[in-house]
Amino acid sequence: MNILNDKLDTTNELLTSRIGLITLAHTIRVLDLSKTIDQHFPALGSN
Questions:
Q1: Dihedral sign (CA 21, 24, 26, 29)
Q2: Left if phi > 0, otherwise alpha if psi is -120 to 50, otherwise beta: which for 26?
Q3: Is 26 in contact with 4 (CB distance < 8 Å)?
Q4: Which residues neighbour 45 within 8 Å (Cβ) at sequence distance 6 or greater?
Q5: What is the pLDDT of residues 12-36, one digit of tens each?
Q6: Model pTM?
Q7: Are 4 and 22 in contact (CB under 8 A)?
Q8: What DSSP line would sit under 1-47, residue for residue?
């Protein structure tokens, strides 16, 4: 199991909409999505 290196600020709210950001960041990392995107889409300005 990998430990997440992301940090969140503290808040008095019970639930914030930002929790989705950390799960999305973790999913992108686990799926190595940035590598897949780089393989299938051209670099910016290459068209």
A1: negative
A2: alpha
A3: yes
A4: none
A5: 776 666 677 888 888 888 999 988 9
A6: 0.45
A7: yes
A8: -PPP-------S-S--TTHHHHHHHHHHHHHTHHHHHHHHSPPTT--
CA–CA gap between residue 20 and residue 17 (Å, rounded): 6
CA dist., res. 1 & res. 31, Å (int): 14
9 phi and psi angles, rounded to 5 deg = -75, 155
Q: Taking the mean position of all CA atoms in its chain, how far away is CA 4? A: 11
Residue boundaries of the structural domains of the chain: 18-47
